[in-house]
Design a protein that fits this description.
- Catalyzes the transfer of the acyl group of long-chain fatty acid-CoA conjugates onto carnitine, an essential step for the mitochondrial uptake of long-chain fatty acids and their subsequent beta-oxidation in the mitochondrion.
- It is a multi-pass membrane protein.
- Its main location: mitochondrion.
- The chain is of the alpha+beta class.
- The protein has 4 domains: 52 residues; 106 residues, no CATH class; 239 residues, Chloramphenicol Acetyltransferase (2-Layer Sandwich), CATH 3.30.559; 204 residues, Chloramphenicol Acetyltransferase.
- The protein has 24 helices and 18 strands.
- It has a 6-stranded mixed β-sheet with strand order 12-18-17-15-13-14.
- A hairpin with an 8-residue loop joins strand 13 and strand 14.
- Helix 9 packs across helix 21, helix 18 crosses helix 20 and helix 19 runs antiparallel to helix 20.
- It is globular and about 95 Å long.
Length: 739
């Protein structure tokens, strides 16, 4: 127990002649070292706070400005246009200062004010530059002169060696789209999914909303966008995640897998030790802001706010209302989850005594580590190894993961690892960034001995682990058993299929002069139609982190252009030239929608926030109700590779991650996550529910494979150049008709 270990360090005995106090030198030494470490950390954080606060300038630039201003005193030039003299005359206690002192102090004050003004000027100039998004709409490899000039200016105003949070104050705010644009794009997105009668009804609802209620709701959103750093993110976190009434296991949490082909050591304890060590190194750099900020094109910065809550974060259950509190442990954030049995049990059984102490230890911890007893991982000899691995990471045995923690690190007896992450605090790319660093550090920096043990000497001064104490009365155990049975029913219903597509990858797709993401999304549309024989509302997640506090936006991938392409693929009378032309048109449409979503012109977050405002104001909107109730039967997401510099996969082709996935969003739909690995591999993570008679994850994987191969066939040189020439001609004619 913790009390027993603490008693060893400090002992005292009461005697008739006084109190005999014995202090453990080892404990005192560790207390001293802990204090030194804490003060060093505070000093570094203060220094980094100053550096980020004055970025893109530097503290040394202040000294340069002061020296330059002081030098003007001796050459009798006043660049301040009389302001230094005005400051000199209005200094407090000026009668007690010499003329020389007043002159020097006034020059310093003016120089400091000028320096601060220049910082704000640089910062807002950079913000204005970052508000330009024309570069993202240009064709790949065809950068315009204006974009080249813009990139040069961004680099110039970005300063040198930025820290993780240096750009935060310069990131633009997420703009509020116009209601007309949003409604137009919404109606365009549902047109291929509705027959004429239903579409006309939806059009009437949309137009009525636009003409009657939208203007009032929009004004409140615009006001919020001026006042808050982001008009979406706080409501998104609260209402989509923290006010959700369902269990977060399977329904919200997601997972990330280990390296696909490599297991650095088969010793569970050694691998867990190295990975934990790498994670704490990552946290140390995170606290110091030493990670390089993620930048598109190596220049355009992304928001880093979500990274603040990777460690020491726990989601706390509540009954009715949401709240966030700062825990006693540094960097601990606690948030609301509305799984009522856990919320009520927590209040009744875990708010006092040893239960509270043990729960506080878990909730204030950096992360949760679980040591599993069944091996997992990819095995090419087993057809369902990724299926089992995914289900283990997503839900385990239902009682061996702490789903409320920001993430649970999972260690298997064969040396494999994985992560289960809670979703409310951040999105998958944030966890992915940490995991990329950890895997690279584990394999290429920490390493293992020939016997598979960790390298380095044993630190005998580390404290022993403490067993957490629990007192669970019978009625509490009954609640736990009921919750377990409910969780097991959810877990057993998850139908997972992991699929490695290695026929081709990003390399071949780029040779086809199309976007890899658009290629895969159109393959998913073709697979969906072949699987269900109908089209459905499709969710693809995109990021909005080019804006301050940005999170995600939805790309509605089932477009009219995609539907036309799929129908042509299923039409035996269509030629490959016609199919290829329709594919290119659908791919271009998808890319444009993705770019609009990234630049703040998406549909769904705007409609979501309009709905929240309507609920606050008590405004009834049949249109918004209909929009927010539409099911996403196909939910998709791409896992990005963000730090390609960590591992050279051309030199180490086996050191590639397998990505991650999530549970099905709809009871009768599919969840699909995919990662494009290198030039020749794409991994798909497919989820559905066994309870749905219409879905089958393995079957859908087979449809994806055939769809990918069928689309590839369109780009093969059939009859030499005739197919390509005809496709270009058809596309040109379509373009003329559009114009």
């Amino acid at each position: 127990m913790a009390e027993a270990h603490q008693a060893v360090g400090f002992q005292f005995t009461v005697r008739p002649d006084g109190v005999d106090v014995k202090l453990s030198q080892e404990v005192i030494k560790n207390i001293y070292l802990s204090g030194v470490t804490a003060w060093k950390k505070r000093a570094i954080q203060f220094k980094n706070g100053v550096l980020a606060g004055v970025y893109p300038a530097s503290p040394s630039s202040w000294l340069i400005v002061v020296i330059a201003m002081m030098s003007t005193l001796y050459i009798r030039i006043d660049p301040s246009l009389g302001m230094i003299d005005a400051i000199k005359e209005n200094l407090p206690q000026r009668d007690y200062m010499s003329v020389q002192t007043r002159a020097v102090l006034s020059a310093i004050l003016f120089a400091t004010g000028l320096w601060l003004f220049l910082i704000f000027l640089l910062r807002y100039t950079l913000k204005a530059l970052l508000s330009y998004h024309g570069w993202i709409f240009e064709s790949h490899g065809r950068m315009s002169t204006s974009t080249k000039v813009w990139l040069t200016l961004v680099k110039m105003f970005s300063g040198r060696r930025p820290l993780l949070y240096s750009f935060q104050a310069s990131l633009p705010r997420l703009p509020v789209p116009s209601v007309d644009d949003t409604i137009h794009r919404y109606l365009e997105s549902v047109r291929p999914l509705l027959d004429n009668e239903k579409f006309n009804q939806m059009e009437i609802l949309a137009n009525d909303f636009r003409d009657s209620k939208a203007a009032r709701l929009q004004r409140y959103l615009v006001l919020k966008s001026w006042w808050a750093t982001n008009y979406v993110s706080d409501w998104w976190e609260e209402y989509i995640y923290l006010r959700s009434r369902g269990p977060i296991m399977v329904n919200s949490n997601f997972y990330v897998m280990d390296l696909l082909y490599i297991t650095p050591t088969h010793r569970q304890a050694a691998r867990a030790g190295n990975v934990v060590h790498a994670m704490l190194q990552y946290r140390r750099k995170l606290e110091r802001g030493e990670h390089a900020p993620l930048r598109a094109l190596g220049t355009v910065p992304m928001c880093s706010t979500q990274m603040e809550r990777i460690f020491n974060t726990t989601r706390i259950p509540g009954i009715e209302t949401g709240r966030q509190r700062q825990g006693t442990h540094k960097y601990t954030h606690t948030q609301e989850s509305y799984l009522l049995p856990w919320a009520r049990a927590r209040i009744q059984y875990f708010t006092q005594g040893v239960n509270k102490a043990s729960l506080d230890a878990i909730e204030s911890a950096a992360f949760f580590l679980t040591l599993d007893d069944e091996p997992q991982g990819y095995d090419s000899a087993k057809s369902n190894s990724l299926d089992s691995y995914a289900k283990s990471l997503l839900h385990g045995k239902c009682y061996d993961r702490w789903f409320d923690k920001s993430f649970t690190l999972i260690s298997y007896p064969n040396g494999k690892m994985g992560v289960n992450a809670e979703h409310s605090w951040a999105d998958a790319p944030i966890v992915g960034h940490m995991w990329e660093y950890v895997l690279a550090t584990d394999c290429f920096h920490l390493g293992y001995t020939e016997e598979g043990h960790c390298k380095g000497d044993v630190n005998k001064g580390l404290p022993f682990p403490n067993r957490l104490q629990w007192q669970l009365p019978e009625e509490c155990q009954e609640v736990i058993e009921a919750s377990y049975l409910s969780a097991k029913q959810i877990a057993d219903d998850v139908d997972f299929h992991g699929y490695l597509f290695n026929e081709f990858g990003k390399g071949l797709i780029k040779k086809c002069r199309t976007s890899p993401d658009a290629f895969i999304q159109l393959a998913l549309q073709l697979a969906q139609f072949r699987d269900q024989r109908v089209f459905c509302l499709t969710y693809e997640s995109s990021m909005t982190r080019m804006f301050r506090d940005g999170r995600t936006e939805t790309v509605r991938s089932c477009t009219s252009e995609a539907v036309a392409f799929v129908r042509a693929m299923e039409d035996p009378g269509a030629t490959n030239a016609q199919r290829l032309a329709l594919f290119r048109k659908a791919a271009d449409k998808h890319q444009n929608m993705y770019r609009l979503a990234m630049t703040g012109s998406g549909i769904d977050r705007h409609l979501f926030c309009l709905y929240i405002v309507s609920k606050y104001l008590g405004v009834d909107s049949p249109f918004l109700k209909q929009v927010l109730s539409e099911p996403w039967k196909l939910s998709t997401s791409q896992t990005p590779q963000q730090q390609l510099n960590l591992v050279d996969i051309n030199k180490f082709p086996k050191y590639v991650g397998a990505g991650g996935g999530f549970g099905p969003v709809a009871d009768d739909g599919y969840g699909v996550s995919y990662i494009i690995i290198g030039e020749n591999l794409i991994t798909f993570h497919i989820s559905s529910k066994f309870s749905s008679p219409d879905t089958d994850s393995y079957r859908f994987g087979q449809h994806i494979q055939s769809a990918m191969l069928d689309i590839q066939e369109l780009f093969k040189p059939i009859n030499d150049k005739k197919t390509v020439e005809l496709a270009n001609h058809v596309q040109l004619e379509n373009g003329k008709k559009h114009i």
